[in-house]
Write a structure and sequence with these properties.
The complex is a heterodimer of chains A (about 300) and B (about 300). Chain A contains 15 helices and no strands. Chain A is mainly α and about 300 residues long. Chain A folds into 2 domains: about 40 residues, no CATH class; about 220 residues, MetI-like (MetI-like fold, Orthogonal Bundle). In chain A, about 45% of the residues are buried. Chain B is mainly alpha-helical. In chain B, helix 3 runs antiparallel to helix 9 and helix 11 runs antiparallel to helix 12. Classes of the chains: A mainly alpha (about 300), B mainly alpha (about 300). Chains A and B meet through helix 1, helix 2, helix 3, helix 5 and helix 6 of A and helix 1, helix 3, helix 4, helix 5 and helix 6 of B.
């Protein structure tokens, strides 16, 4: 049996004595220098990783403005002049505009559907007692830990038999279904934390269950919907596996697929600078959205892992 | 609140549950059933063959190879990613210079800057990240070998993805790169909620930074680390490893199947080779591995819960 190592100092005996002291560790000079060295060390390490994170992204942006020949001859040199034609070529000839539109349609539809259906199911599961409640809840939540790939083979034929293969709405329905486990799980917990009195008052006043839900509960659940919405937005925008299997029509491709397709076919066409422009185009909107909404993004994503 | 309650419940659950059952639950059940047939996926006819697919799997060298790679993904990837993330998060939250009159323990200046930047790769599609690094790894004109030449290591020009003994590690490195930031932010949030008195008294008792980390930070963060481990492991066995391996090492999955992981093998058998039944069999193996992994991590990681 394992026993836990408790941390040596306990809060009870330390808090009272220590927190009053102004300079908490009046240690010898050596100690102070240790703090300084550590500071330099930690900044050094942290900056190195920051550079490692940013460099590939900047390199991609820089490369998207270069000519094909200089991409290969000198990968790190600055572009001789800014080849904006790479970007326009990618947007029009390489179909980036179509991929973008498809992605916006699929993600927009899925996101709305996921939030509406997910909150409906979560509300019922959180607030009503009925036989089978627990079973349905665990049925949903269990889906979080299963490898999607196992289901993909039969899923392909289910979707195919329904005539939904290579359609935008088919992809939307599948995205919604695969987003439900986490969404239901997260929102069920959230609806449980909301006060019951408001909903009960509305019901006594003669509002139906449905009306109470849409007019009272849903607006109250807004913070939860935003968190889970961001989580789903990023997941669905970046989805690669589902469209790769279910969506093979070149006209219906989403961004991730389209880019990979372009990269593969580049072997014959050789428009590498256009491909880089496409890559950066796909990167920038999400990075921009992240910088603007970074607090919500971080909350939305970390809420997903913590539970 | 009884009036019309059941009608309401059924009305609200029907659509989400229906979609979920049709597209998620039903395919899962079917795939286990298909693993006992000889279905090719191309024609509707098939017959039951009992455990034939499972016997075949046990004698399939490529299956064992991809299982080995998948296990490496599930063990090495979380270990490296989470260790790095803990290290960075500790540096961000505890590695700061002691300011006069300030708390004994403080974060570095610009800690929020680091957290924002580290998170960048997390919001990008793993497919885009994989494409980007496939270029960077290119042995002749890629960015990495070009740096090596630039700093005078022109003689060291690995083939990276083209080298069977390196390819798997290159692919893993990309996943580490893209996931570390997420865990830095996650662990930072946990560390920020640990009361500073704990650190202060530890420092008074003469504990160094390493001791503080292992005796205070890590035990108090253990729950988060553990759920992060399971989360990362499931990703590494599933969707994420599929995208990087499929995109970066095209063809059979790396030179000589050197990077094939279970998910990719399922995909290839089903959609390239027209062996749907055998693919679902490997899928069942993948399911078993995933569940076993989660169970083992939860079991081994069980500690007494520390409250603060």
């Amino acid at each position: 049996m394992k026993t836990t190592e408790t941390p040596a100092p306990l809060p009870a005996e330390s808090g009272a004595t220590v927190s009053k002291i102004d300079v908490p560790v009046p240690g010898p000079a050596g100690k102070k220098r240790e703090g300084g060295v550590l500071n330099v060390f930690s900044h050094g390490v942290l900056i190195i990783w920051a550079i490692m994170v940013v460099t590939p992204l900047l390199w991609a942006v820089m490369t998207s403005f270069k000519s094909d020949s200089s991409i290969f001859s000198s990968p790190w040199s600055l572009p001789d002049h800014l080849h904006f034609d790479n970007w326009s070529r990618a947007w029009t000839q390489a179909n980036m505009s179509d991929y973008f539109l498809n992605t916006v349609l699929v993600v927009g539809g899925s996101l709305i559907g996921t939030l509406v259906l997910g909150s409906m199911a979560a509300y019922v599961l959180a607030r009503f007692d009925f036989p089978g409640n627990r079973f349905i809840y665990y049925l949903f939540v269990g889906g979080m830990s299963f490898p999607i790939m196992l289901a993909l083979v039969p899923l392909f034929y289910v979707v195919n038999n329904m005539g939904l293969l290579n359609t935008i709405h088919g992809l939307i329905l599948v995205y919604i279904a695969y987003s439900l486990p986490f969404t239901v799980f997260f929102l069920t917990a959230f609806f449980r934390t909301l006060p019951t009195s408001v909903a009960e008052a509305a019901f006594v006043d003669g509002a139906s269950h449905t009306r109470t839900f849409f007019q009272i509960m849903l607006p109250m659940a807004k913070p939860g919907l935003i968190s889970v919405g961001i989580f789903n937005f990023l997941g669905q925008w970046n989805q690669y596996m589902l469209p790769t299997v279910l969506n093979t029509d070149p006209d219906k491709k989403v961004l991730t697929q389209g880019l990979v397709q372009l990269a593969v076919s580049q072997g014959y066409k050789g428009d590498w600078s256009g491909l880089f422009a496409g890559l950066v185009m796909a990167m920038l909107p999400v990075l921009g959205a992240y910088i603007v909404f970074q607090r919500q993004v971080v909350q939305g994503l970390t809420a997903g892992a913590l539970k | 609140m009884q009036h019309g309650k059941y009608r309401f419940i059924v009305g609200f659950l029907a659509l989400p549950l229906g979609l979920y059952a049709l597209f998620v639950v039903w395919p899962f059940i079917q795939s286990i059933y298909y693993s006992f047939t000889d279905w090719t996926g191309l024609s509707p006819e098939f017959k039951m063959v009992g455990f034939d697919n499972y016997t075949r799997m046990i004698h399939d060298d490529i299956f064992w190879k991809s299982l080995e790679h998948s296990l490496l993904f599930a063990l090495v990837l979380p270990l490296v990613t989470i260790s790095l993330a803990l290290f960075f998060a500790f540096m961000i939250n505890v590695g700061g210079r002691r300011r006069r009159g300030g708390p004994a323990i403080s974060g570095v200046r610009g800690s929020s800057f680091y957290k924002i930047v580290y998170f960048f790769p997390q919001v990008l599609s793993i497919a885009i990240v994989a494409l980007l690094f496939a270029f960077a790894y290119n042995p002749d004109s890629g960015a990495i070998n070009s740096i090596l030449r630039g700093i005078g290591l022109g003689s060291v020009q690995p083939l990276w993805l083209g080298d069977p003994s390196l390819a798997l590690w290159c692919v893993m490195a990309v996943l580490v790169w893209s996931t570390v930031g997420f865990f830095v932010v996650l662990f930072s949030a946990g560390m920020a909620s640990i009361p500073t008195e704990l650190y202060e008294s530890a420092l008074l008792d003469g504990a160094g930074r390493a001791a503080t980390f292992f005796r205070i930070t890590l035990p108090l963060l253990w729950d988060t680390v553990q759920s992060g481990w399971v989360y990362m492991g499931i990703l590494a066995l599933g969707a994420e490893s599929f995208a990087v391996v499929q995109i970066m090492t095209t063809g059979p999955g790396g030179p000589d199947y050197s990077t094939t992981v279970l998910v990719l093998y399922v995909y290839q058998k089903a959609f390239r080779d027209g062996q749907a039944a055998y693919a679902t069999t490997i899928g069942v193996a993948l399911l078993v591995v995933t569940l076993a992994f989660a169970a083992i991590v939860m079991r081994l990681g069980r500690r007494e819960r520390l409250e603060f």
